[in-house]
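The freezer alarm interrupted the setup, so I double-checked each line after restarting. Inputs confirmed:
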Amino acid sequence: MATLTTPKIEARSVSKIYVSARTGDKVEALRGVSFSMKPGEFVSIVGPSGCGKSTLLSLIAGFATPSAGEVLFDGKPIDGPDPARGVMFQDYALFPWRTVRGNVEFGPMARGVDKTRRAAIVARNIEMVGLAGFEDRYPHELSGGMRQRCALARLLANEPDMWLMDEPLAAVDLQTRVILQDELLRLWGDAGDPAQRRAVLFVTHGIDEAVYLSDRVIVLGRRPGQVKEIVDIDLPRPRIGARTAPRAAALIDHIWNLIRAEAAQAIVEEP
Amino acid sequence: MRVMRPIARLAEFALALGILVILWHLLSVRVANATLLPSPLAVALAWVELLRTDLPADIAASLVHLGVGYGAGAALGLALAILCARSAVADAIVDPAMELLRPIGAIAWIPIAIVFFGIGRGVPMFLIFYASAFPIFVNTLAGVREVDRNLIAAARMLGASPRLVVTHVVLPAAMPLVLAGARLSLGVAWAAMVAAELTGADAGLGWRIFWYQEFFAMDKVMAVILTIGVFGYLLDLALRRLQAALTRWSADTRAEAA
Amino acid sequence: MTLPLRIKAPLIFFPALLLSWECAVWLAGAAKIMPYPSGVALAAIRDIADGTLIDAIAGSLRRVITGFAVAALLGVPLGLLMGLVEPVRRALDPIVDSLRAIAPIAWIPLALLWLGIRGNAALFIVAYAAFFPFVLNTIQAVRLIDRKLVDAARALGASPLLVLRAVVVPGAVPTVMTGARIAMAFAWGSIIAAEMAIGIKVNPGGAATVGLGQLMVSTLYVKRDINGLVLYMLSIGLVSLAIDHGVRAFQRKATPWQR
Ligand SMILES: Nc1ncnc2c1ncn2[C@@H]1O[C@H](COP(=O)(O)OP(=O)(O)O)[C@@H](O)[C@H]1O
Ligand SMILES: [Mg+2]
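Predicted 3D structure, all chains:
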């Protein structure tokens, strides 16, 4: 039984080596990554392209297993995907053949929730992300921002304990992103009781975004991916409406200096 | 690793082929009727014999049909597509005409072709010509039309003349689609050729099939059928190689070649 | 006259073409050896009135549909197997490729021998032609399924069975449908070829007109009616247009999520 002091996530010296099935080539994506997350904590992962952010997230989601080390969820080793750890994918991975309603309904349906309760859950979550009225649209009929909201509603409908988000705001324009950041904070409970919050592991390219949203930022370096530093974001909450604190600028600078050289390198190396 | 892969692939192919031949052999033993189902060995022997006698002439005849018909069809398809791209009037007339003719497959023309050309080599040549014109026309026109406007603008900005834009931007950009059309054409033309030779010609691989059927020489019929398969495969392979060589820059081709 | 060029030009060109063709044939006194528009129209009235055309089309279509169904029943499972199991695909790929390179009609002598002239030989040719688009597109469909969607479903708690039913199958449907469209076009093309070959081979003078192909052969060799031949040719085109529209409409209905 998980107690209050059990970390939500605990990664212990996690390494991941991919072996290509065709050529036998090996790619060391992660090496000796350790960190832990408290319940209700908002943690971001930043790092240059190809440093293993998605890989780390997929290990925690349970899509892949570490080559060495282990990842614990509520103190237990992770063994495959689990609806308790909801995932939001970089390009959303909405089911193109299901409408907004069908996508949001998928999780409850998969877990065997009966039809009437399902309808209520779907309606509530669609309402919550502001997609009411668009229930019968297919994903290709939605704007980027609406797709993002649909993916969020699909994640929330399963009431997961933890949100794993892989660059969820990378594919929308800047203004939409700012709005969606605030919405994400609101849904998470930026202004509310910390005990009601879910743990969030949020992968992003945007250092300012990470600083604005998170309690802590894990900075990954690349080749192989390892933890450079874990930065405490000691900005007060609620943060909605307080984007331009001088302290935030200092933190952004600090993180950027950690990864600048490698990010430049990544531009040349990534295909 | 690099050297191993083709060999490993060949081994897999040989294994699958071996299993197929063994199954065929067992089946032919069970049927025990050389006319109904000749054994693989009988077909192989017939093939060797035919290669020394009739087959080279038939292959040559078919390749002549293909060369003349396909050459003319591809040329017409390309010319019409370029005409349509350049002239709005031509486009308004040629496009609906092609759309009307396209659903009438080449094979539907066989009787008319027999009326006009008589049984002989005109029928397969005409059918191949007709069959190959459409895919090349459609793909070339699409390729030319879908060229990224920004690429043309970029070339103009860099000082390219309209002519240079055509030769160095439009044509290369359209090339993957043109070649895809050429491959599609060849497949359709090959099938049309065999059908035309079977029904309305006095030479070629398709004609030879019926010739041996008259004598119920099924081992020889089968050998000709296999020859048709081998040549169809080789021709497609050749075009695929050409495609890969001419469009090295295209991500699609690379993915396909890999 | 402010019609757009795309409408105006064909509206002038095609009637003019037909008219000058008609006149040319009559002026040259070539009505016996050349087809001409009014002759084709008369043939159409004659053959529709006495049911010849409809019967022949129905006969051909029946075999096309049966052959198409057989091809789907055999091709889709094989494609699934080849798409899901990599070694099977690698082993069978060259065999499928070489069999595909054999023009379906080339099998006609053996098909006649094995299945007889009463339609089943043509059925074999049709099924053979339609088989490969099904196999190839099903392989493609399975390989194209987005891994992320599978992961997404699993993360939402879907069982393997639900993943298969709710992700793999709908993900594969559009590509398989495209295969079905190609297969249908191939099937229709090859039924005509097969019927003609059978007609020429088996019954050059006979009256057994069970399909459009046989009808064409007897029109060519027995009735020697060129206008009729043109009519049948146009009918072949019309039917294939109708088939393609039908399949497309079905495809749109069955996959409304496609743009
Ligand atoms: N399935 C895979 N097979 C082989 N290599 C992979 C695979 N997924 C990721 N990689 C490699 O692992 C490294 C980290 O990738 P990823 O986790 O996607 O990085 P990020 O999300 O930080 O951009 C990259 O070099 C990438 O090429
Ligand atoms: Mg990533």
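Quick read of the result. Chain C touches chain B through 56 residues (CB under 8 Å).
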